[in-house]
Structure formats: C-alpha cells, structure tokens
Amino acid sequence: MRYETVIGLEVHTELATKSKIFCGCATKFGGAPNTQVCPVCSGMPGTLPVLNRAVVDCAIRAGLALNCEITRNNKFDRKNYFYPDLPKAYQVSQLYAPICTDGWLEVAAEDGGTKRVSIREIHMEEDAGKLVHDDWEDASLADYNRCGTALLEIVTQPDFRAASEVVDYIEKLKAILEYTGVSDCKMQEGSLRADINLSVRPVGAKELGTRTEMKNINSLRAIARAIEAETARQIELIEDGGRVVQETRRWDDSAGESCSMRAKEDAQDYRYFPEPDLPPIEITDAQIAEIRASLPELPQAKRRRYMEELGLPEYDTGILTGSVYLMRLFEETCAACGDPKEAANWIMGEVLGQLKLTQTLPENMIFAPASLGKLILLLRGNVINRGTAKKVFQKVFAENVDPEQYVKEHNLALMTDGGAIRSALEGVLAANEKSVNEYRGGKAQAFQYLIGQGMRALRGQAPAQEVTRLLKELLDD
Ligand code: ADP
Ligand code: MG
Ligand code: ZN
C-alpha cells in the first residue's frame, strides 16, 4: 500500500519585546540564571499580571503579515499544568479567542508548484523557564529567566505532505517574523521552535490517521530528519498490523530516532478557564489600520520586485530575500554602489562563500554593510582588480576593515603611474632576451609569456590593458 504523510505545525516564537508579557523584567538571552525574575513572573501568590501592550502590537503585526483575521475582543485563558519550570503551575494563554485566525502562507509544494498552507490561529502566551540538568551533581536546576517571556504560537491546519514543505514554511515564516521585527527567530537560542504533528494514511483516504506530536525541535535539519523517521515508523507499525497511539514523542537527533514521552493530553486535561486577573483587550479598527500601514515590504513582494525591477534571477532573489540580514546587506550595498547586479553577484558568491567557509549565520556577520558597496566602487573605478577585491573582502568579512583604508595601507591599488610601469617592463625585457628575440622572430606565444612576466614583476597591480599596450610599444620600438 502507498501512504501519504500529513503534517500540521505548531510554531512557538519568542517576541522581540524588551520586557516580559506581564511584568517589567528583561527578556535578554543569556543572563546569569534567575537574574531576570520578579514576584510576578516567578509566580508568587498574591501578585497580579499587567499586560505589556507591545505584545499585542507584535501579534497583530504577525497576523496581518500572515493574512489573518484579527480578533477584536481578546481574552486570556489559564492552562493548568504542573511542571518544575512553571512556578505558577499554570500558563496564561488564549484558547477561546486567539488574537489571529484564518491566515495563510504560500510555500513551495513537494510536487513542484506552490501551495497555500492555512494558518488556523495565532495566540499569545507566556513562556516557561528552563531546567538545567546537572549530571555532575545529579540534580536539576531551575532557571526562571525565560518565565513570562512573550510567545506567539502559530498553528497550521494539517496541510503539509512532505518534509520539504515544512522546511520551506518555516524558512518563509522566519523571514516574515524577522522582517516585521516580531522576533529575532534565532533557532539555536530557542526563539523559534516547532512541534510537529504527523500522521499517515493510505493515498486517497479521506479520514486523517492518528497523529503523534514531536515537540520543540529547533533546527531545520533535525525537523526534516524527524519527519522522515516518524513517517517510516508509523508506516512500518501499520504494515505490521499495529496501531499508531496518539502521544508526544521526543526526537533524539543524534540517535536519529524518537521515543515515547507521554500520552497526549487533551484540552480538558488542562482544565482551561478564563484568566480572572486580566481584563479583556479591545482592538480597534484604527489600531489595526495603523499597524498595517507600518508593515515593511514583505519577502514575497520584495522578491517579485527584485526580479521585475532589478532583473535578478529567481534563484538569487530567493536567497537575497530569505534572510533579513542578507536582504539588508543587499539593499545597503546597492545604496552605496548603485549597481544591484554586481551587489547580488558579490553576495551570492563571496558573501555566501565566506559564510559557509567560516560556518557563520547571516545574523552574525560583523562588517559594516556599506563596506561591500565601497569595495565594489573600488573595483569599478579600476582602483583595484578583481583578485585584490576578493582578498580585501575576506578582511572586510573577518575583521570589518574599511576597504578604502585597507587598500591604501597595504598599497594594493593598481599602479596609475605609466612611467613606473614602463620602467618595470623594461627590466623584464632586459632579463628575458631570449623571449624578446623569439617574439621579434615572429613567435607570437613569446608575447604571452612576456605579459605574464610583466604582471608578475608588477605584482598584478598594473591594469592588464596598460601592461599589454606598453609592452607592445617597447617591443615594436
Ligand atoms: P492540540 O490542541 O491537541 O494541540 P490541535 O487540534 O490544536 O491539537 O492540532 C494541533 C496541530 O496538529 C495542528 O497543527 C493540526 O493541524 C495538527 N493535526 C491535527 N490532527 C492531525 C492529524 N491527524 N495529522 C496530522 N496533523 C494533525
Ligand atoms: Mg497543541
Ligand atoms: Zn518578572
């Protein structure tokens, strides 16, 4: 029998707001444990939450960018569960009236075309803390810094049919959240995490199969591997006459397999009820209109414009718009040098090359974006040649040197002094009498050899045209 994989995603993204959702504590990543906590976010009895309005604005931004309806009358609900990293023993979330509903995002379909993935809802909630398992002391320690950080949970319909569609969705979603400033989406810091709900069914079947859920997978590679492995596991189970059990599974990426973590809870297990400590939030049409007007040009629109107005190849535009950091570099480089084609070529070639070579993520590039534009201008103005430009770029990339200053300090500019070039070439001719005679005797290859010697004597720093011209002149004297 042939099977079809069916996947729905729940993506949690930490908002880029400076403070937490219900208190004034900082959200900055990487602080010493338990230094960013207060009585509210550490769940002391008797404290009261106060909603950070910036969270609502962020949620609306995300919703509009993802083609959602915005709910005018919002409420929060309590989701009750005990876990050591959740000191209140409940999480404030939205069950009954999520802030955004019925959106969509277009992704590359497995069969080659594009398809719309439906976004069922986006809701606001608070994050839990983190447990640090200390094997040395045989203990688990609780760090509450992350407790109360604002999250959006973005839930799709079960519309994916392959790992490639899921990966494309997450990449596009990530770009949109970055462009709109909703989240920094650093997957390795856990600010974008995906839960994968997956079932299989015979091709052509109408009913969905029983699904499992794999939680908090935080790299695209791991997500793709987890999907392949879970699909195979479910098919094998069914083929062997077994049944898939609805459960939460833990994906172990180093082992390449998942194991059962716990039976899946239903909504009633959480004893949801309306959060009594927070008033409902009204969202007005004016507020929505204002946020809509402030949205930046989104990746999809930008991509189309790069193709149509700048004439860039489709593949390149996908890369250039796929990361907000590459997009900004591209636009600032264009602004500095006025040459989009050359800017795109440099980013597709040298920048991607250096990122790969040094295993750097675009968000961690350190050089001033205008530097690449300056470098292109030096090349175009014939101040340096392409080989030198590439070498200088490595320094720009690694150490953020200023290209103009670097070229000057290291004496890398092409020679513009015709007299100096001429005297260097005279030296070359004197040292290569044999080739000179061959050339004069009618042997054309000898000329190429002499050019090579000339370029070498000039350390590649003389314009090739000028070397050719002067050499001819000297030989034909
Ligand atoms: P829960 O409330 O238990 O998390 P939901 O109904 O909200 O369950 O669905 C969570 C996610 O699981 C959604 O993305 C949804 O599309 C997906 N999903 C639901 N049923 C299935 C199924 N049978 N196969 C694959 N994905 C599913
Ligand atoms: Mg869920
Ligand atoms: Zn706090």
Protein described:
It is a single chain. By secondary structure, this protein is an alpha+beta fold. It has three domains: 3-286, no CATH class; 297-409, no CATH class; 418-476, Arc Repressor Mutant, subunit A. The chain is 40% helix and 20% strand. The chain contains 15 helices and 16 strands. The strands form four sheets. It has a nine-stranded mixed sheet with strand order 2-6-7-10-1-11-12-13-14. A three-stranded antiparallel sheet has the order 5-4-15, with no helix packed on it. Bound molecules: adenosine-5'-diphosphate, magnesium ion (MG) and zinc ion. Adenosine-5'-diphosphate is lined by residues 6-10, 155-158, 197-199, 208-209, 211, 267.
Show the helix and strand layout.
Blueprint: E1 3-14, H1 53-65, E2 69-70, E3 73-74, E4 77-80, E5 90-93, E6 100-108, E7 114-126, E8 130-134, E9 139-143, E10 150-156, H2 163-179, E11 192-202, E12 212-217, H3 220-239, E13 247-252, E14 257-263, E15 273-274, E16 281-282, H4 285-293, H5 299-308, H6 314-322, H7 324-337, H8 340-357, H9 369-380, H10 386-399, H11 403-409, H12 418-431, H13 433-440, H14 445-457, H15 464-475
Parallel strand pairs: 12-13
Antiparallel strand pairs: 1-10, 1-11, 2-6, 3-16, 4-5, 4-15, 6-7, 7-10, 8-9, 11-12, 13-14
Helix pairs in contact: 2-3, 5-6, 6-7, 7-8, 7-9, 9-10, 12-14, 12-15, 13-14, 14-15
